[in-house]
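Slide 14.
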Amino acid sequence: MNRAEFATCMAVLEAGIGAPLTEDMLDVWYDTLGDLDVRDLKVAVRRLLAERTYPGLPPVGQLRKYATENRHGQIATPEAAYKRVRQAISRFGLPINDAEWKALHAFLGESLQAVVRGIGGWQRVCDSPPEDRAVLFAQFRDAWNRMADRTSSHQNLTEDLRPRVGTNPMTPRVATDLSNRLRVVSEDDATSVARLEDNR
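Slide 15: predicted structure.
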């Protein structure tokens, strides 16, 4: 999206909320939203104006969230996702050959497959007795919400803003501090054991 397209979207937003954006704000907002497709931002502005019931400027993150939802679609609720799992159980049961497994995987999609694996796998879901289904759903809901949060964060953030994952998550200072603490704990444990031995 170029600056002129962005300015057009912001003019609509300003007119809709009755609050002007300063040049500095426009610079910051363009830096945050400029990578979006202008069509997604237009929908985000219209949605925000349709849903917003209080005056004042919205958080820029709200516009970004609406734009990415327009691009990728909203993530299903845990209830809707679990309903899909129950439909798959009725339709496929426990597959007995590769063709049936492929059909099941196609029906579930990657996200549901990952969540089901995380709560014990397809066989556990299929074999769960009726009295355990409330617990199973609670586990599914928690796992689904964690996945949804990660997915939403990944979609909302540009590559340069996503948290980096390195091979060693500890800085040398943190690693040294942790090592020192462990050594102190080990020495304290050794002293406590010695005292216990002496008291016998």
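Speaker note: The radius of gyration is 26 Å.
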